[in-house]
């Protein structure tokens, strides 16, 4: 196997004088020594560049960052500074975004089962948009209106009946879905009529989302066409076609750029005659490829004739995607970025599960040794955000790097943090 593909590393990666990985001029080994491992290292300028690209091609106020990809106060402030709105799907995400200083009117409130308390908090704060997902939610908004809470601007989430080519767990646009009002069965039209007649909401448009980690732009185009056709008679000012744009995780994969995605979507809605504002919700495409996760090798176990296991100090608690979706990743040694990876390995974590693996079929240099740093690229989305404390493992730290400097934005959890919510 060849060296790690440079296109999978953060934009501002380079190779130091000793063959080591630098990101934004910062030695990754130095970061690991200071902050410990596992460690998420983000290229801050790359995130800003992706935000600016999205705003440039979709227009100011039309790009909504999907916070479920990765959320902390630092990233909330960053994407807000770059002109993005933020979507929040739970009371916790709403709390983090507000605590970061993001104005409530810049928030889009999502979720297929919003509680009364979550809706009350969002309306009281003055959230800019609520994406309504069910008739039960319309009932709740009626009740909150009767309490005297503000009348929110809403979109209705529509399931358009389009099945994206991605893992079944992250498909959301098919008719058989927990999300939204069905377009093919007439539920979407019934919801629109109810919302238009309700004094409790101001219906401003419709929303759809086809899925996540989607490479086929035809799926996005089909959703845009169906939604534009549905929306046209209502004459409402906005339409959101979600996010889900895929990114390359392993050698040989390629994905559309944000600009290419925009071109396809714009063409589809223009041809369908929609003249309102088109909104999108990228998350993975903004942050995924900006980060690497750095681990420390603790055990190398060679089983003759079968495989070599390389065990690191993290695992499914900091990246559950391989376990949940069978997701693939590359692996390399930060001390030898340009070394040929000639040794096949399976990279596993430290959890009490045989399925606790990070890289099922990985390659590393032949001289990998206990104590080495090992890294997986393209881990900026759905790693830290989906992390857990399984086996009571503390969650990793997160560092942003830019212009030769680093800043800690999420500290590593301590063992005492694991006890913080317990009551004796």
Write a structural description.
This protein is of the alpha/beta class and 424 residues long. It has 11 helices and 20 strands. Strands 5, 6, 7, 8, 9, 10, 11, 12 and 13 form a 9-stranded parallel sheet that branches. Strands 4, 14, 15, 16, 17, 18, 19 and 20 form an 8-stranded mixed sheet that branches. A 3-stranded antiparallel sheet has the order 1-2-3. Helix 8 runs parallel beside helix 9. The chain is globular, with a radius of gyration of 22 Å.
Strand content is 15-25%
Helicity, in percent?
25-40%
- What number is the mean pLDDT? 93
Alpha-beta classification: alpha/beta
Q: Could you describe the largest sheet, including whether it forms a barrel?
A: 9 strands, parallel
Q: Report the count of strand segments.
A: 20
Count of alpha and pi helical runs: 11
Low-confidence stretches: 164-173
Radius of gyration: 22 Å
Q: Cα distance, first to last residue?
A: 54 Å
Which geometry do the CA atoms define? Answer: globular
Give a quick rundown of the structure:
With about 425 residues, the chain is an alpha/beta fold. The chain has helices spanning about 30-35, 45-60, 75-80, 90-100, 115-125, 135-145, 185-195, 215-230, 260-270, 285, 320-325, and strands spanning about 15, 20-25, 25, 40-45, 65, 85-90, 105-110, 130, 155-160, 180, 200-205, 240, 275-280, 290-305, 305-310, 345-350, 355-365, 375, 395-400, 405-410.
Keywords:
424 residues; 20 strands; 26% helix; 9-stranded parallel β-sheet; alpha/beta; 8-stranded mixed β-sheet
